[in-house]
Design brief:
single chain; 135 residues; globular
Length: 135
């Protein structure tokens, strides 16, 4: 039987997150952060008012500032898998984008707000320089 240990923490920039460790070789670990909580923290630091949802943002007084928190472009020279999919059959429409080892899925939450889920399965898929440019 494999044991997993979860450590729950709170960070000033990222908000609540957890780290999951496996006690069995090869001792993998996962860092799970919530991009919506990160965005809320960044809006608060900039003094921008917003209306939160439990796991999203319903409205924001400066939507462009909110978009720039995650502003990232995919260059045309990218030589890896980039696969967009639009899911519309018998569901609330959602758009799925796969990029390298990562995926992003924007969809409507509770029919009221656009929610975006990002999954990064390899740390090099996210350009670390971009995080420092946000500040």
């Amino acid at each position: 039987m494999v044991n997993h240990y979860d450590f729950y923490c709170v960070d000033d920039d990222f908000g609540p997150f957890f780290i999951k460790f496996c006690s069995y070789f090869p001792y993998d670990a996962k860092l799970c952060i919530n991009g919506h909580e990160y965005a809320k923290r960044q809006l608060e630091k900039r003094g921008i008012k917003y209306e939160p949802l439990d796991n999203g943002i319903l409205s924001c007084e400066d939507p462009q500032a909110l978009q720039l928190i995650f502003d990232k472009r995919i260059p045309r020279t990218t030589k890896t898998r980039f696969r967009p999919r639009l899911i519309t059959s018998q569901v609330i429409p959602s758009l799925w984008l796969d990029y390298k080892h990562s995926s992003i899925k924007p969809y409507f939450k509770m029919g009221r707000a656009l929610r975006t889920e990002l999954t990064v399965n390899h740390t090099r898929d996210k350009d670390q320089r971009h995080l420092s440019e946000v500040e």
